[in-house]
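User: I'm curious whether this sequence folds into something compact or stays loose and floppy. Could you predict its structure so I can see for myself?
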Amino acid sequence: MEERFAHVIDSYNDIAVAVSGGADSLGLCFALSEYMKEAKPDLTIHAISVDHALRQQSREELLHVAQILSGVSNVYHHILTWNYKEKPESRIQEQARKARYNLMIKYMRENCITNLFLGHHQDDQAETFLFRLAKGSGIDGLGSMAFCYEKEEGVNICRPLLEFSKLEIVNFCNDSGVKFVNDPSNEDEGYARVRLRKSMEILSSEGLSSKRLSMTAKRLLRARQALDYIADIEYGKAMIVNDDDRIVFDFDVLLRNPEEIILRVLLLAMSKISPNDGYGVRMEKIENLCKDLMKRQAFRKRTLGGVIFYLDNNKDELLLFRESQR
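Assistant: Here's the prediction. I'll summarize afterward.
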């Protein structure tokens, strides 16, 4: 694990760790503390807990986390609170997750912190795979979580525990005397992820273990990276004009590619013209647009995700415009 820490911790910046109080996040925080005590003694670990204020006991639980971390070397614990106008009644976990990231990133920018460490582990990887499979995700959605990636400009997400199971992390905490708490929402079957987590016991008995699901996700990530690499090359080959609010492709050159590559070229172009908030358009919509484009003469100008698509059959050119510019 120390090699994973050394790969992303530089000599000049403090780091942040998202800490909920569970074995995974507290175990990660303690492991980072042990590493930095020797390797980077002058740096501080900012342990960030977010109080979503969705349960009456949430504040008390995080104050208990603060007590647990009070004697840990190099660790400064800070509680952030989600001040929502109205308590969400649907997609609660999704909205809470988005708010949590926004609060932590704001804190990081204010404190000149680049790297945010998360305690996601092998079981989380498998759970996410099943959750997205149930939603009908393709290769991009089913690919594994990245060990380290740039979430926003100047903010990196680091997950050094992805190759460790929940049981291994719990055993580490018990062996190291790390106390942790259990979030009761993790047992609430009103959440889809909790139901999927419990179904893992049945799947594991049939050989579909967290380790195997995690390995499948890694292989799909590898396939996705290869497809993106090819799509980037084909984007360059087909591109005629590449402005901030307008992209023009040689449509004949674009059509020489398999449909999957054409899809990825279009998605790449859309991301350049109209950056989204991280969710983007539904895959079914871009797939339908791509199929209609291949009909050529029957295609009619349309807007998708803030981008206007226009096919000029006379010039064999596909034009994409930012919607606000037309």
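Summary: The chain has twelve helices and eleven strands. The first strand starts at residue 15 and ends at 18.
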